[in-house]
Amino acid sequence: MKIVVAGTGYVGLVTGACLSEVGHNVTCVDIDEHKVAIMKQGISPIYEPGLDELLKNNYDAKRLEFTTNYKNAYKDADVIFIGVGTPEREDGSANLNYVYKVAEQIAQNVEKDCLVVVKSTVPIGTNDKIEEFLKEHLVNDVHIEAASNPEFLAQGTAVRDTLHANRIVIGVESDKARDTLKGIYEKFNTTIVVANRRSAEMVKYASNDFLALKISFINEIANVCEIVGANIEDVTKGMSYDPRIGDKFLKAGLGYGGSCFPKDTKALHWLANDNGYELKTIKATIEVNENQKYKLFRKAKQRLGSLKGLKVAVLGLTFKPGTDDLREAPSIRNVRRLLEEGAKIVAYDPVGIDNFKKLFPTEIEYVTTPEETLKNADLAFIFTEWNEIKALKLGVYEKFMKTPIIFDGRNCYKISDVEKRQIEYHSIGRKEVLNILNRGKQEAAITRM
Length: 449
Ligand code: UGA
Hints:
Layout: E1 2-6, H1 10-21, E2 25-29, H2 33-40, H3 51-60, E3 64-67, H4 70-75, E4 79-82, H5 97-109, E5 114-118, H6 126-137, E6 144-148, H7 158-163, E7 168-171, H8 175-185, E8 192-195, H9 197-228, H10 232-240, H11 261-274, H12 280-292, H13 295-304, E9 311-315, H14 330-340, E10 344-348, H15 353-359, E11 365-366, H16 370-374, E12 379-382, H17 387-390, H18 394-400, E13 405-408, H19 415-418, E14 424-426, E15 433-434, H20 442-448
Parallel strand pairs: 1-2, 1-4, 2-3, 4-5, 5-6, 7-8, 9-10, 9-12, 10-11, 12-13, 13-14
Antiparallel strand pairs: 14-15
Bound molecules: uridine-5'-diphosphate-glucuronic acid (UGA).
Uridine-5'-diphosphate-glucuronic acid (UGA) binds at residues 121, 151-155, 208, 211, 215, 249-251, 253, 256-258, 260-261, 319-320.
């Protein structure tokens, strides 16, 4: 069986690599020549643990091919997975241009019966429309069918999430499509949920939106914890032993970012609205998240008044650890605000600096160790809970900073540990530690406040 994957972003490339890893012959198609050339050398164009190795091994074993020649790839394919992006439009709806472009190319080139599997996250009803579109644009007399197969991988753990998926959802309208997909996924040894196409499409949105809702819920509870003197971590721990609640996705912080939750919450809200239904829970989820992103900035403003001329150490830039992705990362908006305030920023991130430089090439200084970031800083912001940052001893802040004032958006430190130090510490949903600064220069800092 010849499997082709269209698009080599997170979804497409990881899908292609993992399908070849379990023994399928896979061709990955991308329009970008440069990307294809580097993938052939076993180098992943995206930062994703374990992916380079999979690319190299399966390419060397001749199970995995990369090409820009989509005509050749599609013409004799049995199954074509579409894994291209569905970015958000201005109004929050999903932009399906890339998906339709690929569908058009498929229809014009397939020369044998073919199953087109949509992995990209698409609004409910899209698979039906894609099938119609494919049939309308077919050039050759072949049977073509669309199936939905939503993707549940998370960035940073994409290979593991795919090879050890907790479930695979397939949305099909025929036994043939069901059997083909079941056959492809047999070796993944996991539960395969078979549904119709619309239900499978909804599983994806409902899953992501539910997780986003959990995050916004716990962030609101954290905000109230701060007001009433409770500790969010004790609260979530106390909740988590109830198996109906669990302990996942209840970490309070700076709101959800990334390429999925922000886009998928807006898209489902838009879609429901477009059909005359107001999804109130998701509307609130989005609003709470927008607000939460500025949490640290607001705290700093409240504490220090003007930030003009202060040296701010920024620890962590990516939207979460384990990825170089900056999409919807809270660091971006906060850095923008800090710059508007006239702060001087020195930033550290283990892998996100190159991408951040594209957004802020000259406005901020970049360094390669957390210690350098902290040197002579007036305050520090923690935006991402990288291990490199969590491992940083509290003494390092005391040693290097001019005034060790920390705004921690990821609750990297235990309050009981901070309380033992001469550190001022503001985190999320927990009490503030306002230990007197023991530095010679503390007075200068305090005068500003
Ligand atoms: C998410 C889902 O977890 C995947 O299942 C899904 O397949 C993917 O979207 C997608 O639709 O493609 P991802 O965006 O890579 O994956 O990242 P997550 O690990 O889910 O984190 C999303 C955001 O939520 C991050 O900003 C993270 O910091 C935040 N988060 C997560 C919290 O604030 N608290 C938590 O407890 C968990």
